[in-house]
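Batch manifest, entry 17 of 40.
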Amino acid sequence: MRPVTARRAVRGLAAVLGAAALVVSAAACGAGGASGGKSATRIVIGTTADVVNYNPLVGNSRTDSWVTNLMYPKLMSMDMEGKRVPHLATSWEYAEGGTKARVKIRDDMKWTDGKPVSADDVVFTIDAVAKEKIGVVAGLISSYGSAKALSPTEVEFTLTKPDGTFLDNVGFWMAVVPAHVFGKAPSVAKFANDSDWVSAGPYKLTKVERGQRYVLDRVTPYPLAPDNTPNLEQVVFRVFGDVNTEVLALRNGEIDLVANALPPTLAKSVQNDNKLKTVEIPSLGWAHMQYNVQRAPLDKLEVRQALAAAVDYEAIRKSALQGAAVSSDSSVLTPTLKQWHDPSAQEYRHDVAKAKELLAKAGHADGLTLSMIYDQADPNIAKWAQLVRDGAKEAGIEIKLEGLERNTYVAKGSNRDFDIYAGSWAIMDNPPANLGLAFKCGGFINYANVCDPELDKLISQAQEQTDPQAAKDPIQRAARIISEQVYDNVLYVEKFTFAHGAKWTGFEQRPSELLSIVNPESLAKAKAN
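Output type: structure tokens
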């Protein structure tokens, strides 16, 4: 799934005077960033975008998420294998054949105005999301019927059908907001939430200087931090024009951490700097090519198989990604999600002769011409798209590359207006739910126009199971169909590299660029030696 919170932030431009002012400010108060030292009480984090939405239910950029994740709790967090772990919720279960779902929440979390975070807030939030169809969560809770607070710390959800994906989806994706604040707005979806913030995370937003910085101050007590107190008094996000400027600021000691993943070439350049440390985080998504199976000649399996055989997957990982990627085994169940991965999956074999043979079998012995769209702003895809084009040419397939401006690219994908779609999913964390959106007939992000009754049946079987082990077999069978029919050519799983100052320790890693080490648990526990 391509979460709206995870890709392509609006670019901001850092102001030189603002950068200087921040350094002076840090020195004046004797804490954080450039003034640092062993007594550092704040961390300064680089980002390449301003916050677009302060409302955590509608945020659509990485910076939105990094800031609001520190302010609004979610029921669940995630471990390095993508499994859900407690956060606001302490336990959860399905009942009555999967048509009921119950969650117990902590009794020691408070909003910053002193009111307790309660089951009523959870009920208010999900009702608003469902009623106003807010954000990615609305698309993930199609089985939601109603919710009620059984007590101040227990919520019961009634589902319209058994749905084993519901708790994982609502638990991880839905931020819980204060009913007594958001409920005053005529529309929760349209509530700007851009001042006087009432939140319940380890840090509270206190100052905004667009194009320059976002300042968040420590909240105490915060029960998920050591001794109920986040280690750092302050978290500051600094806005830069691009990642190169971020890294320069990191090298100069102006910032302590770069929030966004470093491009492979830049990552290699910082790994030998003894003033810095790098952290490698696996992606929860994948890079891929989808073939429009409702458009000739891609409606023929042999043509799709020929395209898959024409790709040199290892060359893409070594050349375009500089080794910062691993094989997906040509499966939508990637190795990152160990509890779902199928060890029998095998990567498509690069075989130009076989590609030619398949083309001839499909009636295209003289070759064919196709177009491939991609986001021209994505440097990795821009590189590997050329390798795909060159490999296809050897097999007798001419691919015309169409690097598009982001909005045009998104529109063409949504409208299924392409032969080949080159792109990436940022987070695919719940296969039964994700594959339903991406491959079921009429699925919201079924860009390939797949409509396969057997595939639909298997995905539905997996979705109905409330026990993940029972869902594993049908979802693995579904993944094998996707691979065998080449409904999605999954190229690789990226290994993200993040950099921070060498003096910093205590970060807690989470998979994906969205979580990495810039997550609430991590920043509540980080400290400078």
